[in-house]
Each structure stands twice: as structure tokens, then as C-alpha cells.
Amino acid sequence: MTSLFSPDTVVLLCLLLHSTEGTCPSICLCTSDTLSCGSQGLTRLPLLLPPTTVTLDLSYNRLGWLGPGSFSSLPKLDTLRLANNQLTTLGHGVFQNTSSLRHLDLSSNRLRVLEQHFLQGLWRLEELLLYNNHITRVEGGTLSGLSSLRKAYFSLNQVTEFPFFSIRDHSHPFLTMLDLSSNRMTTLPWEDVKALPGSVQKGLYLHNNSLVCECSMYSVFWHWEQRGFDSVRDFTDEHTCLIYGEPRASVRFLRHSLYFQNCTVGKVVSLPMAVLLSNLMVNEGERVHLDCQTSLRGKELSYTWVSPNQEYLTQTSFNDTLINMFPNGTLEIPAAKVNDSGLYLCTALDYKHMLNATREVNVTVIRPMPDTFNTGYTTLLGCVVTLVVILMYLYLTPCRCGCCKQPLPPAIPIPAYDPNTLASIFSPTLSHRDPTKANINKRVVFMEPLMEEQNGDLRATLAREQPGLQWEWGASGLS
Ligand SMILES: *[C@@H]1O[C@H](CO)[C@@H](O)[C@H](O)[C@H]1NC(C)=O
Ligand SMILES: *[C@@H]1O[C@H](CO)[C@@H](O)[C@H](O)[C@H]1NC(C)=O
Ligand SMILES: *[C@@H]1O[C@H](CO)[C@@H](O)[C@H](O)[C@H]1NC(C)=O
Ligand SMILES: *[C@@H]1O[C@H](CO)[C@@H](O)[C@H](O)[C@H]1NC(C)=O
Ligand SMILES: *[C@@H]1O[C@H](CO)[C@@H](O)[C@H](O)[C@H]1NC(C)=O
Ligand SMILES: *[C@@H]1O[C@H](CO)[C@@H](O)[C@H](O)[C@H]1NC(C)=O
Ligand SMILES: *[C@@H]1O[C@H](CO)[C@@H](O)[C@H](O)[C@H]1NC(C)=O
Ligand SMILES: *[C@@H]1O[C@H](CO)[C@@H](O)[C@H](O)[C@H]1NC(C)=O
């Protein structure tokens, strides 16, 4: 009888008990909480899986299909590896009652379309590996409800469209990695991409796609490059685009941006343009629209703008003549002034869900170049004309010596200054055949600026010897 209670018997009993509770399938290796059934040529799931399983490895098998509730007997399942199988699709409710799952590896399978029911209920899922499948399309709601998602890998597929719109601040607050590289996207909904939360944009990998070269595309990557995002910096050479979509005309657009020289990237402006981190450069007097496009969508949002000098501009200051705000949050500066420049910050607030999101616009108002040029040109012309007149005066007049002793003007008038006198210079009556009259005319011309006779005398002498100096005087006299 003593043998019945020997330690050996107890161990044996325990083992027996254990094996009936959580059977370890013969083809798997079981450790405390890990079930490893990889590389066994399985075409179906093993029947009885121990409910204590936390990690289940089924990779490198030949699974082609998984039925509803396949893993519902595993309430503690945290990590599921299904990589390198032959899954073409997933049935409804595969992950029913598997809500503890945090890591799911479905890479290197043959999935074609990611249907929205596939991942339903996985609200704890943090990591999703789907690279190297045959996915062409990701349905709109596929990622909805995956509110704990941190990293999602979709690279090496044939994705042509992706539901960027389904990713928002509040829908996926932890998402920091979205790998869509090496797919077949030709164009993206760039407005949706720009409205992604900043943390998602930072972790969005889009290299090695079939992007068509366009300004809207380039401007997004340009901004990301300015911000030093790893996604762009680490794969500079893999960022290619196709000119007119022609596969052979592939350009490494971050290396060679010449094609985009005509794009208004940071400077802009095709208003109204949705801008996230934007540098808006406008000419003085232009009407400016600053859109408050954030990751929040909805009708019941209220907006607040803060001006560069920390002024709150809310919807109530609608009647402000200088700055208007539309109900959709767009701020309008009817005629921008240089001192309107600066950083404008918009906050969108969703009272119902207590959410907010911000957007910044760096506005630079510049004086239009053509005007400055014109002014300069006019001044220049005025000086040249005056100079010529001076020279004529000094050298073409017959009574050179007599004239030299006459007091001369200290400064030169601009043509616009006194059109009448200018006209008199050019008038046909001005002729060296009539010295007295010419002299009078000259006096008239120089009468106004005449200040000090002594000075004028000196300057005139200098001017005769160094006409270049006269130029400088002329210029300073104008200002
Ligand atoms: C799965 O969960 C549902 C409720 O969400 C429950 O009714 C059902 O019994 C569960 N199934 C299993 C196999 O645990
Ligand atoms: C680019 O994508 C193709 C498939 O679309 C893949 O075969 C190739 O290896 C990728 N290249 C790089 C550098 O990732
Ligand atoms: C950019 O504009 C210039 C002048 O308008 C034009 O000659 C050139 O072809 C344009 N470049 C591209 C890539 O469109
Ligand atoms: C705007 O201001 C003008 C007077 O400056 C006033 O007559 C008008 O009623 C105001 N409009 C609104 C919508 O407040
Ligand atoms: C907001 O409304 C204004 C005026 O109705 C319009 O000009 C502007 O384009 C709108 N902005 C957006 C982002 O829809
Ligand atoms: C900009 O200048 C105008 C007058 O030129 C002045 O009325 C306005 O207060 C200035 N605005 C700022 C923000 O300095
Ligand atoms: C905006 O959200 C942040 C947290 O995300 C919160 O700290 C802040 O108070 C909110 N601001 C407003 C105006 O609700
Ligand atoms: C805004 O733009 C101006 C001119 O482009 C630049 O000097 C300034 O540093 C920018 N400010 C911010 C906060 O980016």
C-alpha cells in the first residue's frame, strides 16, 4: 500500500491528469505555455489544443483554410504564428473568442483580398504581419476596431488601394508603423495621407511602389524629408516614381528632384490647398485661405485659430474685417499684409468625443517682387537720364569755361519729381545755339535741389572728373 503514495506514483498521476486537461498533440512540442507545431506538413489544425497555450506556432505547414472559432478554445492566446502556409482566405469568425491575441503573423501566405471581417474582434492586437502575400486590396473596414494596433506590415504584396481614411488619431492611437512598401500603388489619396495622425505619417513606409510622378505626391515626401523621417531617410534610393506612369521612366525622386522643379512644394499656392505642416508663401494683398484639416472628421467640430501674436480667433470673431473664419474651420485673410506673417495654429475640437487635433501653418507674406523691381528700374532710369543730361550740360555747351564758374546743383532730380522741368531738358528749344536760353533752362532744372552754393560747386567739379560719383549722389539725393 505504501507504494501507492510513493513520489513516483504522485508524479505519474499528475502527468495523467495534466494530459487529459491539456493534451499536447503528438506532432507538436509543448512547453509550459508554448505550443510549437511548425514544419509538420499540417493541412488542418490539430484537434485538441491545450487551453493554457499562450504562444502557438503553426508556421511552415500547408494550412489552406481555417474555420470559424479555430482558436476559441485558447483564451490565453497571445501570439499566433501562421507564416509560410497556403492560406488564400480566412473564413468568417476565425478569430472569434480570440480577443487576447496581441501578435498575429500571417506573412508569406497567399491571401488575396483582406476582407473586413478577417480581423474582427482583435481589439488587443498590437502587431500584424501580412507581408509577402498576394494582397491586392485592403477593404475599408479591415483595420477598424484594431484599436491597440502598433505595427502593421503589408509590404511585398500587390496592394493598389489602402483605406488610409480609416486611420485617425482616436481610432488607432498607438499606431507608429504602417509598412506599405514594395506594393503596386500608383497614386494615393494624398489628402487622406496628409490627414493621418503625425505618428502614423512618421512610420508610413511607401518606397518601392509604382507611384506616378506628380506634384501632390512629391510635396508629401518633400515634407517628410524636411522632417527627417526615417521612412524617407533610410530608403532614399528606393523612393522612385514613374514619369507619366511609364514603368521604364523611373526616377529616384528624392535624389533627383529636377522633374519637380515646377511644383510648388513648400512655397505653394494653389488655394485652397489642404496643408498639414505647411509653409505658405503669399504675396502681399492676396486673399489667403488656411484650411484647418486635421485628422478629425465630422460636422460637430469647433475650431480655434491662434494667430502668430497669440490671439485667439474663434468662430465668434466672424465679423472681424481683417480675418474671417468659416464654419468649416477655414480661416480667411482677405488681403494679407506683411505683418500677418507667422505661425498660425488651428485646433479642432470634437466636444462629443472629447477629442482634439491641431494643425500648423507657417504663413510668409512677401512684397511682390515685380513692384520692387519697377521702383528700382525707374530710379535707375532716372539716374541714367540725369547723368546724360549732366554730361551734355558739361561738355556740349559752347561756353564751357564760363559755365564752370557757375554754381552747380548738389543733387539730381528724378524725372518723376518734376515732369515739367524734365520736359524742358528734352524740349527742342534746348540747344547749344542759344546758350543763354539753355543756361536759363538748366538753372530752372537745378533750381529746386540747390541748397548750398559752396557744396554744389565742389560736387560739380568732382562730377566732371568722376561721373561715377555723380551717380551716387543722384541716388542718395533721391531717397
Ligand atoms: C465565444 O464568445 C461568445 C460570446 O462572445 C460566447 O457566447 C461563446 O460561447 C464563446 N464560444 C466559445 C467556444 O468559447
Ligand atoms: C520592390 O518590390 C518588388 C515587388 O513589387 C520586389 O520584388 C523587390 O524585391 C522590391 N525591391 C526592394 C529593393 O525592396
Ligand atoms: C518647368 O517649367 C519650365 C518653364 O515653364 C519648362 O520649360 C519645363 O519643361 C518645366 N519642367 C517640367 C518638368 O515640367
Ligand atoms: C458686422 O458688423 C457690422 C458693423 O460693423 C454690423 O452691421 C453687422 O451686423 C455685423 N454682422 C454680423 C454677422 O455680426
Ligand atoms: C470652407 O468654406 C469656405 C467658404 O465656404 C471655402 O472657401 C473653403 O474651401 C472651405 N474649406 C474646406 C476645407 O472645405
Ligand atoms: C500690421 O500693420 C497694421 C498697419 O500697418 C496694423 O494696424 C496692425 O495692427 C499690424 N498687425 C500686427 C499683427 O502687427
Ligand atoms: C486636447 O487633448 C489633449 C490630450 O490629447 C488634452 O490634454 C487637452 O486638454 C485637449 N485640449 C482641449 C482644448 O480639449
Ligand atoms: C516660417 O517660415 C519662415 C520663412 O520661410 C522661416 O524663416 C521660419 O523659420 C518659419 N517658422 C517656422 C516656425 O517654421
UniProtKB/TrEMBL annotation:
One GO BP annotation of this record: brain development
Entry keyword set: Cell adhesion, Disulfide bond, Glycoprotein, Immunoglobulin domain, Leucine-rich repeat, Membrane, Repeat, Signal, Transmembrane, Transmembrane helix
Major localization listed first in the record, in broad terms: membrane
Signal peptide boundaries: 1-22
Membrane topology: Single-pass type I membrane protein
Residues spanning the membrane: 376-396
Protein's recorded name: Ig-like domain-containing protein
